[in-house]
Amino acid sequence: MLNQVQSSTLAAYVSGLSGQTSVTIGGAPFTLVTRSSTSTGTIQKATQYVYEHFQALGLAASYAPWQSSGIQGRNVVADQPGSDPTCLYLLTAHLDDTSASPNSLAPGADDNASGVAGVLVAARILSQSHFICSLRYVLFTGEEQGLLGSDVYAQAAAQRGDPIQGVLNLDMIAYNTPGSPATIEMDIRSGLAGNPDRVLTTLVTGVIQAYQLDLTPLVYALDDDGSDQYSFWTAGFPAVEVIEDWDDHSPYYHQTSDTLSTLNLPYFTRYVKAMVGAMAHLAKIAPLPFHIFLPLLKQ
Length: 299
Prior knowledge:
The protein has 299 residues and is an alpha/beta fold. It has one domain (2-298): Zn peptidases (Aminopeptidase), CATH 3.40.630. Helix content is 36%, strand content 23%. The longest helix is centred in the C-terminal third of the chain and has 19 residues, at 265-283. The chain is globular and about 45 Å long.
C-alpha cells in the first residue's frame, strides 16, 4: 500500500486543487482559482470535484450540508464499510482555503490542498482492500471561518452515536525546509487519563518506525483549536491534528504565493505513506469472505 503513494500523483492532485491546472468537474474542465468557503460558486465546484473522485472509487459518497454563523456550505463524506459495524476511523482534511483576496485568488497548495490530496490518495489505495473497521473520508468546508463545517458534522455524529474510535485530521502536510529535519507534528489534548488521542499518535509513530519512513514525529499536548480535530474533541471523540512542524511551517501560509512549487514533494510523499499505513493498521485488514474463493476452488 505504501509503495502506491507516488509523488507525481500527489503533485497532480495539488496542481488541480490549487488552480495551477484545470480539473474535470461534471464532465467539463474547470479551474479552481480559489476554494474559499465564501466564494459560493467555486467552492461548490471544489466539493463536486472531490465527491466525484470518491464516487469513481466505488465509495458511498454524500454531501453533508451545514449552516453556521451566517454562512452555509457542504462537507463531502465517503464511506468504506468494514466487517465490524462497531468501529469506525476517520481520515479528514479541510477543503477550503483563504488568502488576502480569497474570493478571487487563493491557491492554498499547502493549506490545505496537501491534506486533501493526502485523503484522496489514501482513499484510492485503501478502498482496494477489505478492513474489519469501517473507514470514512471527510473533507470539510468552513474551516477558515472558524471550523464551521466540522463543528456541525462532529456534533451531528455524536448525536447519531457514530462509533468513531479515532480521527486523523490532515492540515498542511507538505512544507519542510530543504536540509532541515523531516519532522511531523501531531497535536493532542492535555490532561486526559489514558489519553485516547495518544493511542493514535503511538500508532502513527509505530508505522513510521516499522516502515522506515525517515520522518521524526513530534507529539504535543496543545489543546489546539486551530483545525478541525478540535470539533471532534468538543464532541467527545479521540482525534489528532497531523501537521507539518509548526516551527518550520510554510512561509506562504494564507498567501496567494502558497503554490505547488513551494512544497517539498519527497517529504510530502513520506507523510502520506505514514497516514496510509496508520489507517490500514487502525482499521485492520479483514480476511476475504470465503465465497470469493469458491470459483477458484472449483477450477
